[in-house]
Design goal:
Blueprint (H helix, E strand, L loop, with lengths): L1 E3 L2 H8 L6 E6 L5 H13 L2 E6 L19 H10 L4 E3 L26 H4 L3 H16 L3 E5 L3 H13 L5 E5 L19 H6 L1 H15 L5 H13 L4 E9 L14 E9 L2 E9 L7
Parallel strand pairs: 1-4, 2-3, 2-5, 3-4, 5-6
Antiparallel strand pairs: 7-8, 8-9
Helix pairs in contact: 5-6, 8-9
């Protein structure tokens, strides 16, 4: 496995990889969810590239950029076990945002909803760094996870609107034994908070059961989620959504597919989760 710390070094190594190339972008502190995406890329491509970069432009000044968990040596060891061919791990400030950088990618409709309400600059940072990475890596296949469903929809729109010749593949949500969606930020949770966090998945399971039993009124499904979350004193609700995957507009009645998503805070940790209705339907 080769590791590149600069764009020039990466491009030299990338030129020697057999095509097609699969790409899994990450912010590091890898868990089994990330590694499951690497395996999907490997199933589809003879060459697999990952990136490890804590992107500063997707963090607001009040967010956890400085405290975001990092362990590059551990990450590289995990990726080597997965037989990744090339890792792009630029140091912060090494050419990705040079002095005077002033070019941003914005998606004002889909990025302004859900996560975009409390994090108004987040998806500008995501869309910009993904665009840069796509130009640097030049992948044939890019694999993202469904846990960050809105991010996946933003990238899907980005690929379509900017005519990237890239196949976008979405991996399923990887979960801990109690149902909590795997996230690098789960390390912040105390044992009691981790137990309380299982309410997210339990609320989504309840919605799936209600939908399967015939409940298609979106507000009734939102209410069912809020009830489960409200029963956990440590859970502070941020948003509960039943929306169209096309543009994340809130639905009144589910007639086709719907993205059910939620965000909460437990202590200092912000958690998100989601499911697609009908159960088992793809997001993209």
């Amino acid at each position: 496995m080769n590791v590149a710390r600069t764009i020039d070094a990466f491009r030299e190594l990338r030129s020697g990889l057999p095509e097609p190339v699969g790409f899994v972008p990450t912010m590091g502190f890898l868990h089994d969810g990330h590694l499951s995406l690497v395996r999907i890329a490997r199933e589809r491509c003879p060459s697999v590239v990952t990136s490890i970069y804590v992107n500063p432009s997707q963090f607001a000044p009040t967010e956890d950029l400085a405290d975001y968990p990092r362990d590059l040596n551990r990450d590289l060891a995990l990726l080597e076990e997965e037989n990744v061919d090339l890792v792009f791990a630029p140091e912060e400030g090494v050419g990705l945002y040079p002095a005077g950088f002033d070019t941003w990618i914005e998606l004002p409709t889909i990025a302004s909803r859900l996560e975009g309400v409390s994090r108004p600059t987040h998806f500008r940072g995501v869309a910009t760094i993904v665009t840069k990475l796509f130009h640097i890596v030049e992948p044939d296949v890019a694999v993202f996870g469904q846990k960050d469903a809105q991010q996946a929809l933003v990238v899907h729109r980005l690929v379509r609107d900017l005519d990237f010749d890239i196949e976008l593949v979405l991996g399923p949500i990887a979960r801990e034994p109690g149902g909590l969606a795997m996230s690098s930020r789960n390390i912040y949770l105390s044992p009691n908070e981790r137990e309380a966090a299982t309410a997210l998945y339990r609320s989504l399971q309840r919605v799936e059961r209600l939908y399967t039993a015939g409940e298609h009124k979106a507000e009734n499904l939102r209410h069912a989620i809020r009830e489960v979350l409200a029963a956990e004193p440590l859970v502070q609700q941020e948003y509960v959504s039943v929306a169209s995957p096309a543009d994340l507009s809130e639905l009144e009645t589910i007639e086709g597919r719907a993205l059910v998503s939620l965000s909460v805070r437990i202590g200092k940790t912000r958690l998100i989760d989601n499911t697609v209705l009908p159960p088992g339907e793809p997001l993209l």
